[in-house]
């Protein structure tokens, strides 16, 4: 308890009351910001620039679904490569052979530290460094390899953590049944680890979907445009941002269901503990 200027006792606010006041101030600031945006924004101009109904219809009718399909194909291939490579890297990180651990650590730290943009730029310039080099199934092979390299570095750490989360008693029980260490890993540890890793791996998939927006660097024909490249091309040709907004909504069509699935799996896992 403190005293006011006239000497009268003044009660201190309880932590709960203080939190309520801070929350009230935050709500007031948010409401004021929204009110200012409503009052001062030129909504007719916003509608014409970002949400033109005619351009929305044209964008959806002329190539959006093909671009969305290409985005899914790019992401799926990159995820499969990243998952396989990430599993091998995780096993190398856990290996008793020191050079394996060193190589895996170097790879993981290097590609986790590089922006995905740099990886895509490097792949686009490979034919200049190695004349005659050609990736199979262009442009899909190039995109899959670049996304797989980016994803594998992150997935490796997720998979390693999942493997280490499996109780050691499971491995010891498998070894007592006559399994070798490799058999115990593939038949006992990894199946249990992947059940643990499904939510974080789904988050990695969402990140790869967004990283696929960088595929424009490798050079694409109109038939191979991903959502971002398609939206940018349509926005430039129409001098309007609406197609890019529609392309962004295409990403939400893919990622929002995945995010909901992740939250439900995490909630189910927390209840099962």
UniProtKB/TrEMBL annotation:
Transmembrane segments: 21-41, 72-92, 113-131, 243-262
CDD domains: TM_PBP2 (cd06261)
Pfam families found in the cross-reference section: BPD_transp_1 (PF00528)
Topology relative to the membrane: Multi-pass membrane protein
InterPro entries: AA_ABC_transptr_permease_3TM (IPR010065), ArtM/GltK/GlnP/TcyL/YhdX-like (IPR043429), MetI-like (IPR000515), MetI-like_sf (IPR035906)
ABC transmembrane type-1 domain mapped to chain residues: 68-262
Principal place of residence: membrane
Compartments where found: Cell inner membrane; Cell membrane
SUPFAM superfamilies: MetI-like (SSF161098)
This protein's UniProt keywords: Amino-acid transport, Cell membrane, Membrane, Transmembrane, Transmembrane helix, Transport
Record-linked PROSITE patterns: ABC_TM1
Protein name: Amino acid ABC transporter permease
